[in-house]
Amino acid sequence: MKTLVLMASPRKKGNTFQILDKFLEEAKILEEETKTIWLYDKEIKPCIACRNCQKDHSIFGCIYKDDVEEIFNEILKSDLIILATPIYSWYSTAPLKALLDRLVYGMNKYYGEERGPSLWKEKKIAIISTCGYPVEKGFDLFEEGIKRYAKHSQLIYLGSLVEHDRGYKSVFMDEEKEKREREFARKIYKK
After folding, report:
1. Domains contained in the chain, CATH given
2. Tens of pLDDT, residues 115-167
3. How much is the pTM?
4. What angle do CA 49, 52, 55 make, to 5 degrees?
5. What gap in Å lies between CA 191 and CA 188, rounded to an integer?
6. CB–CB of 57/116 below 8 Å?
């Protein structure tokens, strides 16, 4: 299975990276092919809902010439998309939110004069996240949003793994978290 990780943390060694790293280590053990795109390293302009992307149902078709078409093409080559993000104000970081807005139009050709297909129909999607609030109070809105997004886009939502950060003075990564990350990878890849 080809996995594309959309990494939406601004910190290359932060908490979200630490849990993603254990997930990717397990994916490697399971001999899964993975690719990670760091969204903070990409130019991702915000969607303006111009619907130019709806004119041709076979291409991305966005008016912007930034890095999103490259990401679009990587998604089309993938079987599984992992959204890896810390939670900021009850949702993903800004680059991931901007990308999701662009993809909902560019991938789903539902909004033009003629209703078209979902170009990523039946691809799998999952979330790996970190949250400063207790998970049940900080992550739930983002997960619900992604569940609805997946249903709308005809994606297969596989679930989420989210870890709580207890604060700047605490040690984030521990053996229990590492165990959960590895178990999540095995669940996702069903091995």
Report:
1. 2-189 (3.40.50.360)
2. 999 999 999 999 999 998 888 888 999 999 999 999 999 999 999 999 988 77
3. 0.95
4. 130
5. 8
6. yes
